């Protein structure tokens, strides 16, 4: 599964080649009389801001990157993915990760400049919530002026686009008054996995989480109004082979309207922090093998294992005799 992470020193020397390769799509469409080579990755990293890269796995070379400048705001200066890895959702994942990181750094909007009529430029960003806007800061007016000076408008209309980003989500333990919203979220979790609608099962599970039965404890990610928008349920399990205990993550779900805000990552980081504080040796969970969206998040923070899960149905048989 693809992994998105901050660019390392090793990655920086590979960014220009990625951008030059991605630019071939634009060059082939616009047919310019000349096209400047990409800036070096070290020059990008030298300024204020951040660079995220995407790779096919944690050990692979990057195949795409997003560069965000921080100068009187957050500005997505470049997004590039190698042509061999196009149409796989990597650009979308990079943009969403950049928005989450910008929000974490305290920004409330992200801007960019792009070609309005190139399908993988303005229309692509519009699908991610960006809208056309006017430069309203000295930095943004300077970017627009630089584009005019070097003549980018010779090959098509250039536009600024802006998207608002929400503040980072906080994580806390569930409270008794979270009941109605928690049950709503958990019903959504069951629907996602195509489980039969069962209000009694939802209510029973809520009572377990609320009262800490069966070792369960509930976490919720909440928005700026303290309204739960995502949930996670943890419980302790013994690990005899290592004489340790771990935390098992039974459920993880984010409401549709909160997706893309980093709720799952925030809950997983909270679970890891609880494990560290309480001396657990691991946080473990399972997910469907085809749940690509969730696995893209999980692969950024955890390692998939080679273990296969089995389910054994209860069945009558000979009683096990107590050796005592």
How would you describe the overall organization of this protein?
This protein is of the alpha+beta class and 324 residues long. The chain is built from 10 helices and 12 strands. The protein has helices at residues 9-12, 15-30, 41-46, 90-104, 122-127, 138-150, 179-192, 199-211, 263-278, 292-301; strands at 3-6, 49-55, 62-70, 74-81, 109-115, 131-133, 158-164, 170-173, 217-222, 228-239, 244-254, 283-284. It has a 7-stranded mixed sheet with strand order 1-2-3-4-5-7-6. A 5-stranded mixed sheet has the order 8-9-10-11-12, sandwiched between helices. A hairpin with a 5-residue loop joins β9 and β10. α7 (179-192) crosses α8 and α9 (263-278) crosses α10 (292-301). The longest helix has 16 residues, at 15-30. It starts with a strand and ends in a 23-residue tail after the last helix. The model has no long low-confidence stretch (mean pLDDT 93).
Topology (elements, then pairings):
Blueprint lengths: L2 E4 L2 H4 L2 H16 L10 H6 L2 E7 L6 E9 L3 E8 L8 H15 L4 E7 L6 H6 L3 E3 L4 H13 L7 E7 L5 E4 L5 H14 L6 H13 L5 E6 L5 E12 L4 E11 L8 H16 L4 E2 L7 H10 L23
User: Which class do the helix and strand fractions yield?
Assistant: alpha+beta
Average pLDDT value?
A: 93
Helical stretch tally = 10
Gross morphology: elongated
Rg, Å, rounded: 24 Å
Percent helix range: 25-40%
How do the strands of the widest beta sheet line up side by side?
Answer: 1-2-3-4-5-7-6
What are the low-pLDDT stretches, counting only 5+ consecutive residues below 50?
Answer: none
**Strand element count:** 12
CA-CA gap between termini: 50 Å
The biggest beta sheet is recorded as:
7 strands, mixed
SSE series = EHHHEEEHEHEHEEHHEEEHEH
Note the beta-strand portion: 15-25%
């Amino acid at each position: 599964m693809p992994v998105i992470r901050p660019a390392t020193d090793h990655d920086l020397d590979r960014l220009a080649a990625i951008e030059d390769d991605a630019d071939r799509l634009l060059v082939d469409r616009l047919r310019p009389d000349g096209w400047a080579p990409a800036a070096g990755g070290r020059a990008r990293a030298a300024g204020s801001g951040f660079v995220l890269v995407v790779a096919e796995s944690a050990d692979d070379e990057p195949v795409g990157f997003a560069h965000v400048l921080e100068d009187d705001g957050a500005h997505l200066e470049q997004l590039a993915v190698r042509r061999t890895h196009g149409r796989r959702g990597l650009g979308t994942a990079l943009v969403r990760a950049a928005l989450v990181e910008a929000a974490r750094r305290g920004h409330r909007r992200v801007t960019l400049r792009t070609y309005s009529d190139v399908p993988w430029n303005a229309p692509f960003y519009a699908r991610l919530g960006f809208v056309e806007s006017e430069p309203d800061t000295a930095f943004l007016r300077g970017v627009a002026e630089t584009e005019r000076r070097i003549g980018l408008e010779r090959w098509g209309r250039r536009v600024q686009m802006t998207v608002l980003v929400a503040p980072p989500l906080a994580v806390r333990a569930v409270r008794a008054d979270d009941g109605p919203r928690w049950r709503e979220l958990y019903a959504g979790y069951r629907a996602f996995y195509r489980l039969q609608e069962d209000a009694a099962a939802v209510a029973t599970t809520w009572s377990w989480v609320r009262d800490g039965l069966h070792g369960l404890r509930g976490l919720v990610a909440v928005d700026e109004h303290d309204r739960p928008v995502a949930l996670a349920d943890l419980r302790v399990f013994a690990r005899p082979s290592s004489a340790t205990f771990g935390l098992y993550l039974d459920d993880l779900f984010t409401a549709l309207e909160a997706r893309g805000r980093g709720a799952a990552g925030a809950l997983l980081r909270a679970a890891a922090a609880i494990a560290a504080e309480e001396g657990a040796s691991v946080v473990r969970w399972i997910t469907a093998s085809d749940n690509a969206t969730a696995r893209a998040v999980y692969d950024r923070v955890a390692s998939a294992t080679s273990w296969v899960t089995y389910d054994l149905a209860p069945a009558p048989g000979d009683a096990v005799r107590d050796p005592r």
